[in-house]
Amino acid sequence: MTNSIGTGLDIPKEIFSEWIRVSIPGTSVEATYPLPPECLEYFIDFIFPPNIIFFAKSVMETTARLLNNCDLMELAPFRPNKKKFPTLEKQIREWSKPMEVVHVSRLDKKTRILKHAGADRCSMSFVWERHPEWPDWPTTWPERLVKGSVEEEKWQRWANDRRNVRLTLIK
């Protein structure tokens, strides 16, 4: 579920200084959603939108929609019963319950939980967990994002090859 590009590196974690991580504890499911640098000043810790909770709810719902169409066997215990929850809205609400939502500020080396697994909704948490062991935030762009570098050319070839893949529906 992470936004990775062939090398196992996660683009939001390399380019963006803050992101929201949505996961289901006990599974391999994890999705990261970057907070755009130009919008960071709008994601404030107050109770009126647009705040960080508003963004966290939207990414949690997006992840729930993706999981609702996913057939991973490890998610079987979390899958909503379609007879008991017949509408997509109710299924998304059920998917959201086991999720944990974390706000990561890599620049300041800290995280905070915005929604605990099992909780019904997100809540504003002012408690940050510090991570002094994290390495210093890079001050230069990753090599594959520097125009004209060997890594960038490899990445562009890989991206262009993926575009040429044709998908067909087999009955």
How would you portray this structure in words?
The chain is of the alpha+beta class. It is built from 4 helices and 5 strands. It has a 5-stranded antiparallel β-sheet with strand order 2-1-3-4-5, with helices on one face. Helix 2 (52-68) packs across helix 3. The model is unreliable at 1-7 (pLDDT under 50).
Which terms would index this structure?
171 residues, alpha+beta, 4 helices, 15% strand
Q: Could you give the distance between the termini?
A: 27 Å
Note the main sheet: 5 strands, antiparallel
User: Percent helix among the residues?
Assistant: 25-40%
Q: On the 0-100 scale, what is the average pLDDT?
A: 82
Structural class, by secondary structure, is: alpha+beta
Backbone shape: globular
Instruction: Tell me the Rg in angstroms.
Output: 18 Å
In short:
Helix content is 26%, strand content 15%. The protein contains 4 helices and 5 strands. Helix 2 crosses helix 3.
Lay out the secondary structure.
Elements: H1 11-15, E1 18-23, E2 30-34, H2 52-68, H3 88-96, E3 100-105, E4 110-115, E5 129-130, H4 150-163
Antiparallel strand pairs: 1-2, 1-3, 3-4, 4-5
Helix pairs in contact: 2-3
